[in-house]
C-alpha cells in the first residue's frame, strides 16, 4: 500500500469483507481476529489508531448486527456458548442441537478415525495428493514469515498459520457421535479462509526461486485437485467444465487484459472494448443458465428428507402465507418461498426465556397458533435428526390437525415418521377438537 488514499480504501474494503465473514460464519472469528492484530501492529506508531478505525469501523458495520442483537436479547453475543470455564453464560433452551461438536484435536491420535473419516474427507476435498495441498499452504505461511524486510507479509503469514491451527480446535470441525465424525468432510470449509490466505502468500515468499516458482507450485496443486480422483472427470462432468469456464471468464480474461494494459501492448480503448465484450459474453451465457436454474431448482431437491414433492408444489405458489412445523421443515424451509419469493413463510413456535423459540407442546395451543397466524397452508414434517439424518424423529403436529374439517392434505411424501405433508387451511381450527384426536396430545420431551 503506497498512498494515504489507497491505504484508507484498502483497509475499509478489507474490514468490510472481514465483517461480512464473521457476520455469516462464526468459524472465521479466529482468522479475522488475527488479521485485526496484523492491521494494528503493521501500521506506523502514529497512525495505528487511524488504521484500527478504518478497519474496525467497516468490520463492525458488516458483522456486528447479530452479535449485538444476541447481546440485547439474550445477554450473550454468542448464545451457543453457555459454559466458559468457571463462568455460566445466559443462553436459550434450544429445540434441537446439531451433531456433537468435537474438534479435530479430540481425535488427533486416533488412527481409526483418521482411516475411516479424516483421510476420505481430505481426499474428497483436495484429491489423493491432499498432503501436498496442505504442505503448499503451510509453506506459503512459513515463507512469508521468513521474508525479512516485509513485515506485512510476515504478519499475514503468521495470521494464516494461526487460522489453520485454530481450525484444529474449532468445535464441529469433527462433528458427529463419539468416534464417528461424519461431518468432518463437509466442515473442512471452516479451514478455507486461512488456507486461501496462505496459498496467496506463496508466490510472495522467499526460497522457491522467485514468484514464478510459487505460481507454478500453486497451479500444479490445482491440477492435482482436479485430476487425481478421476483422470477424465473434467471432461466427463459438465459441472466441472462449466466451473473451469467461469474461472477463465472471471479471472483469466480480466487478468490477461490488465497484464497487456500494464505492459503497454494494447491501448486503453482496446482494453475497454475487451471488458465490454466480456460483459456481453457473460450475460449471453448467464441468462439461459439462470432460466434453467429457476425452472429446475426444486424438481428433485433433497428426496432423502422427502422435501422434493413439497418443494415442487411450492415452486408455483404465489402470494400465500405458509406455516411450518417440525425442525426438518424449519431448517430447510427456504423452498417454500416459491420461485418468485412472493410467499410469506413463518415457523410456528412459542417464545421461551432468554430468547428461546420452542416447539408448541400441546395440540390445543398449536391449533390456536395456526388460527392466529392466518395461514393459507401449513407444512408439517419430522424432527431433523442431525446425528442420523436418515432417521428423523417423530413430530406430532400432523396428528393434531388431520381430523379437523378446516384442513385438507394437498401434497405429501414419505411414510410414517418421515412423512412431509402440505395442508390447505380453509377455515379456523377448533382447539376443543383435540379431545377426540388419536395419538399424543402433548409434545414429547425434547
Largest sheet at a glance? Answer: 5 strands, mixed
> What is the subunit arrangement here?
single chain
Enumerate the spans where pLDDT stays under 50 for 5 or more consecutive residues. Answer: 1-6
User: What is the rounded Rg?
Assistant: 26 Å
Could you say which overall geometry the principal axes of the C-alpha atoms support?
A: globular
Second CATH tier, the architecture of the largest domain:
3-Layer(aba) Sandwich
Classified by CATH, the class of the largest domain is Alpha Beta
Secondary-structure element sequence? Answer: HHHHEEHHHHHHHHHEHEEEHEHEE
For this structure, the CATH topology of the largest domain is: Rossmann fold
How helix-rich are the residues, as a percent range? 40-55%
Q: How many angstroms separate the termini?
A: 55 Å
Strand tally is 9
Share in β-strands: 5-15%
**Tally of individual domains:** 3
Order of strands side by side in the largest beta sheet? 4-3-7-9-8
Number of helices: 16
Provide the residue-averaged pLDDT.
85
